[in-house]
């Protein structure tokens, strides 16, 4: 087999804002594997996020990627060798599985185009009117689970937006998830989470910045206590907290120390396919829920996240996943994906 690399700069239709700032473009390295005749092909995407991915500084040159791939493939276990480089590991695993049509990913109802994967509708940070317009657009598209990025605009305005949504749609008809991207201090997080709990929110992702295990564990325990006492509570989902926690022993220690209600798994950030399956398995053993999310990849990475989610969460996946990034770019890469209402489908591919 022959491996080639190419660079792609993707351009956002509109700035993608989080509490850390905004993205206008996103750079990706595409791994392509072909057989000697050039007929069989496998694709993977290495797209670490600036200021976030643990391996963001490892790919300053294309030659760095080529060297790491060569060294990994010469080792006994390329996935183990690439543990420190989750974005590259995800890309190489994806390309290898695609090239091999490995049953791990391609023997599921989703891969066979028999079922779609339910998704949450993502509402990006903006002013009140813009975010409300985004919510309305998602509802018209058929979404019944919406995730709001919060933590960057005025807090009363964010709370007013959530109150407005809840006044029109009860928790039984619309599931709300919020993502603070670590924007709050531990003290203000406790106060704001108490306020949010009154609105029947499904969960909050990363209320405080990562690497504050003691403080995060405290927030998770407060919610468990509120639930036990019959009070309104707000489950915590870890996201950025998982970045850089690459070994199996570290994963177990973190989950046992913090005790979250959920974790959000992003293969590009959280250990590639191998690491993501470890996270899901270890969380499940502890009664911790999880779901899978893309991390601003192009359609190549999005497709592979969807294939992995279909494998990890079973043949008839029902819990909404975070796969809604395919329409973010003006110059995305065509892949066999279709958005039908609030579900992601793999388009039917005719046999040659």
Task: Explain what this protein looks like in three dimensions.
Helix content is 37%, strand content 21%. It has 352 residues and is of the alpha/beta class. The chain has 2 domains: 2-106, Enolase-like, N-terminal domain (Enolase-like, domain 1, 2-Layer Sandwich); 117-346, Alpha-Beta Barrel (TIM Barrel). Strands 5-6-7-8-9-10-11 form a 7-stranded parallel beta sheet. A hairpin with a 2-residue loop joins strand 12 and strand 13. The model has no long low-confidence stretch (mean pLDDT 92).
Average pLDDT: 92
Number of strands: 13
CATH level 1 name of the largest domain: Alpha Beta
- Unreliable spans are none
CATH homologous superfamily classification of the largest domain: Enolase-like C-terminal domain
Order of helices and strands: EEEHHHHEEHEHEHEHEHEHEHEE
How are strands sequenced across the largest beta sheet?
5-6-7-8-9-10-11
Q: What is the percentage of strand-forming residues?
A: 15-25%
In helices, the fraction of residues equals 25-40%
The figure for the number of domains is: 2
Cα radius of gyration in angstroms: 20 Å
Number of helices: 11
Main sheet?
A: 7 strands, parallel
């Amino acid at each position: 087999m022959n491996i080639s690399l190419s660079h792609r700069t993707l351009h956002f239709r509109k700035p993608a804002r989080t509490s850390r700032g905004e993205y206008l473009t996103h750079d990706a390295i595409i791994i392509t594997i072909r057989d000697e005749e050039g007929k069989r092909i496998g694709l993977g995407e290495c797209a670490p996020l600036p200021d976030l991915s643990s391996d963001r500084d490892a790919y300053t040159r294309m030659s760095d990627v080529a060297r790491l791939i060569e060294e990994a493939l010469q080792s006994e276990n390329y996935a183990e060798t690439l543990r420190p480089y989750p974005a590259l590991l995800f890309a190489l695993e994806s390309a290898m599985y695609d090239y091999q049509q490995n049953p791990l990913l391609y023997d599921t109802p989703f891969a066979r185009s028999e079922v779609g994967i339910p998704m949450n509708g993502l509402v990006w940070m903006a002013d009140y009117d813009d975010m409300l317009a985004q919510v309305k657009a998602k509802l018209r598209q058929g979404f019944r689970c919406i995730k709001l990025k919060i933590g960057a605009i005025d807090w009363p305005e964010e709370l007013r937006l959530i109150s407005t949504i809840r006044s029109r749609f009860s928790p039984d008809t619309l599931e709300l998830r919020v993502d603070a991207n670590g924007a709050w201090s531990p003290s203000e997080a406790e106060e704001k989470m108490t306020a949010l709990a009154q609105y029947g929110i499904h969960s909050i992702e990363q209320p405080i910045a990562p690497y504050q295990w003691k403080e995060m564990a405290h927030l998770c325990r407060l919610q468990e206590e509120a639930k036990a006492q019959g009070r309104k509570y707000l489950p915590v989902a870890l996201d950025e907290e998982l970045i850089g926690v690459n070994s199996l022993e570290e994963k177990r220690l973190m989950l046992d120390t913090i005790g979250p209600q959920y974790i959000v798994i992003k293969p590009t950030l959280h250990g590639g396919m191998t690491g993501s399956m470890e996270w899901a398995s270890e969380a499940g053993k502890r009664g911790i829920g999880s779901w899978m999310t893309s991390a601003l990849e192009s359609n190549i990475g999005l497709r592979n996240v969807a294939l992995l989610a279909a494998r990890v969460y079973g043949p008839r996946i029902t819990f909404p996943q975070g796969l809604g990034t395919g329409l973010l770019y003006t110059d995305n890469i065509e892949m066999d994906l279709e958005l039908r209402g609030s579900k992601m489908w793999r388009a039917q591919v005719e046999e040659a």
